Sequence to fold (676 residues):
Amino acid sequence: MSHHLPIFEGHHLPVAGSSSEPLYAIGGRFESPDALVNATQALSKAGFSCYESYTPYPLHGLPQVMGLPKSILSLLVFGGGVSAVLIALSMELIPTGIIYPLIVDGKPTDLSALPQFIPIVVALTLMISAITAVAGMILLGGMPRLNNPIFAWDLFQSGASRSFFIAVESHDPKFTTASVTELLHDLGAVDVTAIHQEPKDPE
Amino acid sequence: MSTLTTNAEAVTNAPDLEVLARPPQVLNNRNPHWVTGAVCSIVEGRTPLWWWIGFAISATFAGIGGACILYMIVTGVGVWGSNSPCFWAWDITNFIFWVSMAHAGSMISALLFLTRQKWSISIARVSEAMTVFAIMCAGVYPAIHIGRVWFVWFLFPVPNSYGMWPNFSSPLLWDVFAVTSYLTVSSLFWFAGMIPDLSVLRDRATTKIRKFCYGLFSLGWLGTARQWRHYEMMYVLLAGITSVLVVTVTTIVSSDCATSVVPGWHATIFPFYFMVGAVYSGSAAILTLLIPLRLAYPQLKDLITPSQLDKVCKLLLLMGSCVAYVYVIEIFNAWYSGNAFEKGAFWERFHGIAAWYPITCLSINLIVPQLFWFKKVRHCLPLVFVLAILCNVGMWFERFMIVTTSLIHDFLPSSWHDFHASIVDILTATGTVGIFFTLFLLFIRFVPVINMSELKAVLPGSQPDHPTGGEGH
Fold:
């Protein structure tokens, strides 16, 4: 799929995807987690903003290096949990206390009998919080997305489970093919590749 | 001279570093690449013959169980052995047995994750799978034991044709919510933990169908720093939520019995009783699954180490001892309460017509876990396997003892009546075992059995040298 362009800035710059399609990013592979973190730090210091670091497992400290804030997921889940408490309480108290008071053993059906309504509140709170957590992680992480331009890079496909990658996207304001290629090489990247988008289906 | 003595003392008192060192997470210094290959080879290799044989057997049992359920639905609950006064028998026994078994899985994957017990990483995926499948088996019963299955929607929070809503103060309705939320949360925890590993299978896939299926279920996971940031937060949150469930679900299930006035059930120790029994039987179930799995796939021997199995055995010992404590305190309380019915229930339990199952239960659960005090026993895996199966049998008898012996001896001697299981009871129960193993075999064939991304993250040398000075740890 990939073929080599002539010598470019002193290096070979292989092309992935279809070179007639627009350039998506320039990617590089790193051999070790340390090399990736150092490179990410350098890119961040150089003022790049549209780049991604791909790792097969979470690297401690990488989000901080990229200047990413703490995930807002915990806040979302807190919101989910609070609304679950309100949903569960109204689901129980409105029918039992107002719509059709169901008096069993002469027990009260209003807030004075709160303890008997708590188990369902607990169960629903846990369930809705968990759904919020997973749905939030999926949506905040830009998923579900079945295709991605980075898939055009066959090296990424074959090495994602063991290698570390950085792809600097072409819409970054500081992006020029020459400077990014040079920078990635200087940072110790191997297999620096120009990733073009894949040709669209003939249909 | 004195300095010399001090030095010599310091040397002799120095801790033995080899003893203190944590046992390695992965044996033989395997690298991350090897871990990926070893785990993926199970899914990518040819289906072994034993898998087909096991699948055929368990699917047959599951099919027979399904046929029995269908027969029960079209005929009525009379095909079961349940009758006055023992209206709850094998159905509720099996429900409690399965839902309890699930708990050790949640405990190992969630509670031990939160407490940073890294040894549990390799066995967490199998434990979670065990949890999800056990809840599914438990879920078979609540729906069918109501008899007229087409009225199952009475359990949902909607008004019936008389405008009446379900009784939200009833423990039986609490059960519905507890089990539903348990199944939902543990399935989500299991699936969400699997997304990065499924993307590895997607990238390694060689056929178009595989690539499509794993691509679909990995949701387009790329492993970017932005994704991992949210993912790690989600994992901690889900682990926290699941840890709460370890305590709440059995507590609610135990309320089914404890809130009634039946002697032998009406006890405040029941939530604790059910919970320790749950983790005890679940630890035994995990051992029952892990030991043959290691045997079937020898490459897993470096990942699921004897030291990890040893720790599960210790968990089983701890919980087994708690169970033994509850047995003793229950009998003591019956005597100490001075309540004639309570005393009578326990007297009858061990002397009556049905004394053989409490005695089976007690003799297994009091003796077998105590064997795990011995290191030699914990390290002899074939023996551990046999003992773990015995523990599960013992726990089934415990659930059966709690449910039936209390019911068959209630307040009026004239209504005492023994319980006899029917063939449909037995085949439905073996059917759920069939369902469990069918699902488990499908799991090991199609999904990575070890959480590769989490395991690789804790291997030596896998993390950078803290560029932010250890911030966020």
Q: What stands out?
A: The CA atoms of residues 31 and 398 of chain B lie 45 Å apart.
